[in-house]
Amino acid sequence: LVKDRFDYLVLGGGSGGVASARRAASHGARVGIIEGDRFGGTCVNVGCVPKKIMWNAATIAEALEDAEGYGFDIGAFKLDFGKLKQGRDNYVRYLNRIYEKHLDAEGVERIVGWGRFVDAHTIDVAGRRLVAEHVLVATGGTPRVPDVPGAELGITSDGFFDLEVLPKQVALVGGGYITAELSGVLHHLGARVTVLLHHGEPIRGFDGMLRAELVQHMRDAGMEVMLWREAIRVDGTTPALVIVTRNGDRIGPFDCILWAIGRSPRTSGIGLESTGVALDADGHVVVDDLQSTAVPGVHAVGDVTGQLQLTPVAIAAGRKLADRLFGGEPEARIDYDDVPTVIFSHPPIGTVGLSEEAARARYGDAAVKIYERRFTNLYHALTPKKPKTTVKLVVTGTEERIVGIHVIGLAADELIQGFAVALRMGAKKSDLDRTMAIHPTAAEELVTLR
Ligand code: FAD
Ligand code: NDP
Fold first, then answer.
1. Which residue from 88, 218, 281, 426 has the fewest beta carbons nearer than 10 Å?
2. What is the dihedral of CA 251, 253, 255, 256, to 10 degrees?
3. What are 169-181's pLDDT values in tens digits?
């Protein structure tokens, strides 16, 4: 049984688990990683990667619509959805193999199967008992489905990636990242899109400018965004599904309903109760700022902890933990503040730091100043539609330290990373002012704000 003893056992081969396992192995630890599905987890298989490919496809469709204004005579164009899906699936499978190769190259033992805790240091995989001094819970999460009659007639983001044909009339329920992203994808690929929010605004916690502009962009593009519509039932059968809302509306018919109301951690049915590890009210593993639970030797990273549900966060947390446990860095931890993030809506949102609302709450109204500009990107000089770009800086104090940067518009996804570096370095408004602009770009608007 010596063979089944490890220094580090990782439960879950997604973003956080794989990163942590590989880093630990690079420090010389004997590492095993347990995965019941495909390596790469949510991000590679049913998240970031296939989503970005679909977003790229929608961006191409948008560009084809814009091309005429630039003098191109493209005529009618048609999407072969099956070909797009096949190409995407092949690419994901290619990434699965790369993930496996990297683990093998680092000397991490891949254990295929569903793991279940027997005690805090022992995991059972199909009858095989694996033991380790340190164990990482990196089991991620799954999409939530509302507890309403007929909910099973809808799909989630997982089901979106199984679609073989483009649905014609889609309802997206929820107002978070996934709705913001997949509504744009479906719309630009040719579906009729209706979005139902259970209250008045999407993307809670984001700057108010972004929340309002996003709805405006979606409506201007031709999507229907319905506010204060809480789904309480789904009637009918596919392809004529109807959503019944609390205020008595019957909305539809739809051939596809997509629930995007958040994700639940995968902490049930994996024997966690036998470890003594505490879960919060939503079932997330409770960890300290070193990613450790109160049970010695049991740690958790990524979506399962309910912290920021982003791949780079899971990866960074997993690596730091491995550095701490096996790399001689006893204080290694990540900083959850000022994490930049992008919503791949159409157009995209790039944001880092505090929203105006959060800055006012933290520093007081008198200390907070806003710089904002709304403009038409030069790209749209010759296009039929002219969606605006909005950039916003939130600064505090007489020195005007930048505490928030918020952009919605073409290229926001790529430009925010560099500005996030500036914010994290403590940049002031004057630092942006003395940085020469790059013309003509959208990014230059952030260094020329007055
Ligand atoms: P996961 O990647 O979910 O990995 C968990 C793994 O554990 C899975 O492979 C699962 O099969 C395995 N597992 C679970 N239980 C067991 C068990 N008992 N035994 C064995 N294996 C088990 N983030 C971004 O930063 N950018 C994006 O653009 C982005 N887009 C997204 C789009 C969508 C549609 C979704 C749903 C998410 C997106 N995310 C994005 C979020 C990102 O995918 C997650 O934050 C990230 O994957 C979390 O990594 P993780 O390691 O915590 O969990
Ligand atoms: P989010 O947490 O982003 O949003 C959930 C949305 O659903 C909120 O608008 C919420 O409203 C609403 N909601 C909650 N319950 C209900 C209900 N019963 N009926 C109607 N609406 C409801 O979750 P998503 O599912 O969109 O995405 C999951 C996570 O995956 C994201 O939080 C993000 O971390 C990650 N992700 C990251 C991406 C990226 O980095 N680009 C892309 C996609 C996903 P409210 O909270 O206002 O009450």
1. 281
2. 0
3. 999 999 999 999 9
